[in-house]
Structures are given as structure tokens and as C-alpha cells.
Design a protein that fits this description.
Blueprint lengths: L7 E2 L5 H4 L7 E2 L4 H13 L1 H17 L2 H13 L1
Length: about 80
């Protein structure tokens, strides 16, 4: 994501949150035919692909280890 690649992933752990439920990448349904349709749809729709990739890039560049550490410290203070 940091380099503008579109992530394609399954719904495990915090991945749906990281991908904003599919707004910053593609979440597979684990149904082969449906997933093929989703991937083909993005291949054919350059604007949708670029928008998701851009949103992922923007998010990933804000989500740094420094921010992560800061948020953990904030949680521990509460």
C-alpha cells in the first residue's frame, strides 16, 4: 500500500479495518467465482483501481510506527 500497490486480501484479523472494508483495497470473499469477478472488475475499471490504490497509499503513509507507538502510549495512560 505504501508504494501504491492495491492490496488483495482475505478478511482476517484487522485487515478489513486496514482496508476500510474494501475502500483501500480488495477484500476477497473466498468464493472463487465472485472473487474472479471482483478482480476482473478492478482490472477493467482503471478509475476504481486507482482510487482504491490512492486511498491505500494515503492511509499507509499516515499509519507509521511512530503513530502506532503514540497510540499505544495513549491507551496505556487511560
Amino acid at each position: 500500500m505504501f508504494w501504491g500497490c492495491l492490496p488483495i486480501a482475505t478478511r482476517v484479523s484487522c485487515v478489513p479495518d486496514m482496508l476500510d472494508d474494501g475502500k483501500r483495497g480488495l477484500l476477497l470473499t473466498m468464493d472463487f467465482h465472485n472473487d474472479v469477478l471482483l478482480i476482473n472488475g478492478l482490472i477493467k475499471d482503471k478509475e476504481a483501481y486507482e482510487e482504491k490504490a490512492r486511498k491505500g497509499l494515503d492511509w499507509s503513509r499516515k499509519y507509521t510506527l511512530d503513530l502506532f507507538e503514540s497510540e499505544i502510549k495513549t491507551l496505556l495512560r487511560q
